Amino acid sequence: MQSQTLNAPYERLLADSSGALVWPDEQLVVVADLHLEKGSFFAGKGSVIPPYDSRSALERLSATLERWSPKHVVSLGDSFHDPKASDRLSPDDRAGIQHLTSKYEWIWITGNHDPAPPLGLGGTSSSRVTIGGIVFRHLPSGQIQQPEIAGHLHPKASVKARGRRVSRPCFVADCHRVLLPAFGAYTGGLSVLDPAVANLFPGDYRAYLLGDNRVHMVAKHQIERAAN
After folding, report:
1. Are 35 and 82 in contact (CB under 8 A)?
2. How many CA atoms lie within 13 A of 29 on its CB side?
3. Are 122 and 128 in contact (CB under 8 A)?
4. CA–CA distance, 40 with 29 (Å, rounded to integer)
5. What does the pLDDT read at residue 44?
6. What are the residues facing 36 on neighbouring strands?
7. Which of 31, 88, 212, 219 is buried most deeply by CB count within 10 Å?
8. Where are any strands of DSSP class E within the chain?
């Protein structure tokens, strides 16, 4: 199963195995935390890291959008790893982004890594946007006032599978909030049992783990404690 219906705020939302969230009725695809050019950022500080993260993320994103054919795309902040990241894009990657933002109605939500909108890449920019009564933002709110979809925390969950522990990026959702996994290649993750995530979901929730070609729904009590 390439996607899974979420137990989420009011609407029929689908968790795609790529890490994108799909809202079919609004012809909307949402991604979070692309962190484009993270590889080049660390390479500039002397780290030996392959500089292909932007290309990998953009290829997966393009394939996801081709599959769902949305009208709108929202990128939930930290789309770029730092304020100068867009300057380090290769010409091909820059052209690829411009193609996507011309093909879809694109909204860049600003994040803590990219507080200013990207220049010359198309789309529009905002600190948050409300669609169908749901707020889309980068940082999840501490006291939720209305249903929201957010990123920032790069959630992951660990479960027992065939006698071994498996840890995967995941969506986290209850009836008020959806937290997206990071879409970028070098983004790591934070356990859903960490207080930074767990405190956002004090009641029951579901985690939707990303498999190779499937999304696996996991109940709260099935999640294992594991080192991040």
Report:
1. no
2. 25
3. no
4. 27
5. 54
6. 80
7. 31
8. 3-5, 14-16, 21-23, 28-31, 72-75, 105-109, 124-126, 128-131, 134-137, 148-150, 155-161, 164-173, 177-179, 190-191, 206-210, 215-219
| Average pLDDT, consecutive stretches of 10 residues, N- to C-terminus, the chain (228 residues) | 64 92 96 84 58 86 97 95 86 95 97 86 95 95 90 94 84 95 86 95 94 91 69
The answer to whether 184 touches 34, Cβ cutoff 8 Å, is yes
The single-letter code of the amino acid at 131 is I
Q: Is 125 exposed, middle or buried (0-12, 13-18, 19+ CB in 10 A)?
A: middle
Q: What are phi and psi of 85, to 5 degrees?
A: -60, -40
Q: Which domains does the chain have, with CATH numbers?
A: 3-222 (3.60.21)
- CB proximity list for 189: less than 8 A, separation 6 or greater: 154, 155, 156, 167, 169, 181, 182, 228
